[in-house]
Amino acid sequence: MRLYLLPISTRRTLLYCQKLDAPATQKQTWGDWIQSKAARTWSGWEQKEEGWQKKVVNYGNYALRRIPYEEWGLKSVPPLSQRRKQVELRGDEKVEVVYPKSLLPLGKVSKILETLATERESLHKQRLVWCFVGMPITIPVGLLPVVPNLPFFYLVYRAWSHWRAYAGGKHIQFLLKNNLLTYTPSPVLDAVYAGQKQPLPSTPEPTTSPSAELLGNEKIPGPENPNPEGETMLLNQANGRKMTQALDLPQLEVELERAIWQVETVVQLSKEDIVEESSRGGDEKKTQ
């Protein structure tokens, strides 16, 4: 497999795992089979013109878009099975980390990976437990005619999602602990970031906790960072699409689109809050 570290803003980085071609002799796991079956079912519902399946898809896509991009990134990393652990320890399967050297110094790459792998670990464990607690409560909904027990299936999906994110984080921690990663700077990524038109949305206040500040105040390409103490976007949607084309990773496009949208939304809301507070403070001074 191959890991990508893709800075979205000066304080947030997307992790994405590319699964390389598996040997033809490798058997499909039951988890992979369930994922494929669910994806085919969902795709079939998306093709419908109307009906409850179409409504479920519309509401479902709305909810999926709001699942944090950090969770999606960890979910892209396969769980660490016993067979995979042995293969990686023997060195039969190299795990490459691809990153833009212009934004992420080599000395920071492993620290960023460690932060991404561990910062949400307790949250995923807690949410997983709450999903299991909530499942029995939704059972009466299944007694309703025609309509399936959507709350139950949603909690099942969220439980699986939190488990996959937790397992993905554990896999990365294993790779870091055993020094099984190969770090590869990417001129392709550097070129994409260098070609990003400025200015991009920014806010003078950081929108992350100190432990999540992945890039800190690193100088960004192009003009000077307008908010070195705050947060500035490093990608927009157009350049995100260019990145997926340059890397020849079409499956990355939806992950980048979601991450950019989420971070842009947070930055914009933070900026609006600051303007509102500033305006409120000015009004208070006038009344004094």
UniProtKB/TrEMBL annotation:
- Map out region (Disordered) in residue numbers: 196-232
UniProt cross-references to InterPro entries, sorted A to Z: Mit_KHE1 (IPR018786)
Low complexity composition-biased segments = 205-231
Gene Ontology terms: biological process? potassium ion transport; proton transmembrane transport
A GO cellular component term found in this entry reads: mitochondrial inner membrane
Which interval of the chain is the signal sequence? none
Which named protein is this? Answer: Mitochondrial K+-H+ exchange-related-domain-containing protein
Species this protein is from: Cercophora samala
